[in-house]
Amino acid sequence: MISRRSLLRAGAGSAALAVPLLSPGTARAADLDPATIAKYAVPMPRIPVQRPSRVVDGTAYYAVDMREAEAQILPGARTRVLTYGGAFPGRTFLAARGRRTVVSRLNSLHMPTSVHLHGAHVPPEHDGGPMDLIAPGARRSYTYDNEQTHANLWFHDHAHHHESEHVYRGLSAFYLLTDRTERSLPLPSGEFDVPILLRDARFDTDNQLVYAMDDFLNRNTILVNGRPWPYFRVAARKYRFRILNSTNLRFFTLKLSDGGSFTQIGSDGGLLAEPFETTELRLSAGERADIVVDFARYPVGHSVELINDNGPGPAEHVGKVMRFDVTRTAADDSSVPARLRTLPALPAPTVERTVDLRMDEDGRPHPRAYIDEKLYDHDRVDTEIRYGATELWTVRNVNRLAPHNFHMHLVQFRVMERNGRPVTGGPEGGLKDTVTLLAGETVKLQATFTGHRGTYVYHCHMLDHSAMGMMATMKIV
Questions:
Q1: How do residues 218-239 score in pLDDT, each as one tens digit?
Q2: Residue 63: helix, strand or coil by DSSP?
């Protein structure tokens, strides 16, 4: 029996939802015990940058296929994964506001895909919607005009009913969009600006990934940039870490093992207005954050762990993330200004809506998940929005046990209230596109729907939940 506390800390739904990937009667190797994987034994790799094939009149062109490959995840072993361009995780795209990016995608897999640029302000035909599919063997191009302000975006698969497994097996990558506002600040840069992609995994004794729907209890190996519990050598100075929770289900509460503080400077939609000093960082699946950690307070030769104070799973495994080893001194002319940016004005909303999130949690063998008591239907428009309107959405998690989160395509929104209390700053005070809702919680979100017309989805970004139906369609007219 799973306790209510375990479910709240899990970042997942009912334990009864696990569905084996292999067909009945198909044998597979036993699960690998995470205790057999040495911690802090491998270095954390830096994710390589994806280079354009050409740049013409300021537009960068890329060609990236989606294919199966083998990656070295566990020491001395090869694991079959799904990749963007053969890399696990995918290589990082660098983009600048006002300079167009065009990505040609070839689907070399045997199942359909859809490439969504999460957090991007793009026309619907380039959004990578759940039914806008690339068939096996087909190619299509996505164009990103990069009109929005700086943000840490990310690519992931969005093919409905396949998205959960595809992302779990590797189809995710950073897309870092910058602008003059960000570049003008004296934040840590160059080798001291480090993207970190977090995820969890379950392996068998053949060193292969094991996938099952809503398998939140068994994904107990933590991967950082594709390697298990790595170490990262740092200088005794400030570092900027761009952190993405790319898991399907897990929520992280990240802390330094000595209880030391760090500075959060950004969230999903870019920099906060002001830096926020804290000792913990909470990220649900799909959320991003920028933090600055100053290692100058540690002597050379000192180590400090990045830990996770959240379940589910054995604390000796899921409670550990990575280790920072201070190995040298270095000059540091970076700083965190007291003012980072001016956030867009908040127009008065003219429309208010309520959205309810719920999934079956009564132990039935084939549970489903709903928005406003409806399963996702591609042919149905659930919400019609006037172009240019500013709306206030009250989003409620009506489950007793299961947590959710909420993601909207097209727009970055502002979190106005959480559980009736105003949000005026801190980690939820900036631009967001994904927000956490534990069981019974309510948030109020404000967004202005401009720039593009057409149909987009909103959904729980615990991808197993959206695959089970917790998704709806809005039409901007």
A1: 999 999 999 999 999 999 999 9
A2: strand
